[in-house]
């Protein structure tokens, strides 16, 4: 499976999950709680960093 197809699948899954009522209720609750908001920001940053690490590994394998 190509990296582009994986990225499109991940994006589609993220959009679908963000529209789920339970996820939306959780996001609203996190916004009102400063400690939960800080934890959410930390988690998102870690996930973005890890996605970049995985992308770099995938691109290295394909180029060489």
The percent range for helix content is over 70%
Number of domains: 1
Low-confidence spans: pLDDT under 50, at least 5 residues?
none
Secondary structure tally: strands: 0
What integer is the average pLDDT? 81
Beta-strand percentage range: under 5%
The biggest sheet, with number of strands, parallel, antiparallel or mixed sense and barrel status, is: none
Oligomer: single chain
The count of helical stretches stands at 3
Structural class: mainly alpha
Shape type = flat
- The radius of gyration over CA amounts to 15 Å
How far from one another are the termini?
Answer: 18 Å
* H/E series: HHH
What's the arrangement of secondary structure elements?
Elements: H1 3-18, H2 21-32, H3 34-63
Helix pairs in contact: 2-3
Structural summary, described in words:
The protein is flat. The longest helix is centred in the C-terminal third of the chain and has 30 residues, at 34-63. It starts with a helix and ends with a helix. The protein is mainly α. It has one domain. Helix 2 packs across helix 3. It has helices at 3-18, 21-32, 34-63.
């Amino acid at each position: 499976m190509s990296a582009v197809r994986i990225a499109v699948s991940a994006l589609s899954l993220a959009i679908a999950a963000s529209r789920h009522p339970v996820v939306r209720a959780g996001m609203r609750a996190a916004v009102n709680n400063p400690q939960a908001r800080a934890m959410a920001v930390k988690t998102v940053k870690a996930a973005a960093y890890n996605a970049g690490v995985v992308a770099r590994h995938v691109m290295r394998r394909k180029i060489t």
